[in-house]
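Work Package 3 (structural annotation) set out to generate three-dimensional models for the target panel prioritized at the project kickoff. During this period the team completed the workflow that converts sequence records into discrete structure tokens, so that structures can be stored uniformly alongside our sequence database. As a representative example, we reproduce one entry of 321 residues exactly as it appears in the project archive.
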Amino acid sequence: MSTPRGRRRQKHEEHEEHVDERWMASYMDMVTVLMCMFIVLFAMSTVDANKFEQLRNSLATGFGEKSVGKIDTANGTVVPADKVDSTAEGFADLDLALKEVQNLKDLEAQINANLAAKGLEKTVQYQIDQRGLTVRLVDSQTFFESNSVALVGVAPSVLDSIATVLAPSKYSVSVEGHADIRHPEPPYPTNWELSSGRAVEVTRRMVELGGIPGPRISAVGFGDSRPLSPGDSPEAMAQNRRVDIVAISDAPEAVRALIPDALNESTTAPGETKVPTKKPAKEPEKKPEKEGGHHASGTPPEQGTPQKSSPFALPGAAADR
């Protein structure tokens, strides 16, 4: 009877000898963690210098801090540092500028298509800048009689084609009259009255027959204070004697400031005719003559401040209508 009890006690003691071996699990965990740490340290010690340099240059160029010879911009646009503000709104502004340029080009294409349908596409010039889209009626003798504000020739058809596109658009319109350096004849005492009168006639046509709402359009005369070409040659005076119809951009100022940059990146719209930026060489000065054929004594006084005109009231303009 004593023998089985002794065997049970011996088996119990042999089982209790392995209780303290659980520390090995913690030890193995620690060894595994140390091994992982040394593997990571080894991997960090073998960084590819070329790839790291490419990453550093790419990040620096993206933030405008460094210019490199080669940079892959297929997946994004690199904006110069002076175009990005502290809130990183430069990227959004550039995208908006690109969209505004495309809208203006679409507007130009519609106007050009209307004019081309009547064979009049060569009677105007286009220019897109920070202000918006300018449709330029160059050489007012094509649209007005000499020393007169009355619309003649193809002028009504050209204006109707332009107004058809501008009327349903979102843009405000500014009609701006300009004159050459010759002094006008009576009933216009200065070029202010002559240029303003022509701007008003264009405005009235576009409002009364073209359907452009009155609150969205204005007329202004600049006289001969804003010439496109210097000098008194026939070519220069033909460029300066004009009426500009400007579709004014309603984009924020920060977006409009980026329109020249966006314009350089965008493609040229079909049918686009841009005004040459290179000014013609100045020819020997000739004696200025009046638009009616008489000699002028000089330019009118008070040049430099544009004179606003009422769309329906012009001193002396009604005499030649």
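DSSP finds nine helices and six strands in the chain.
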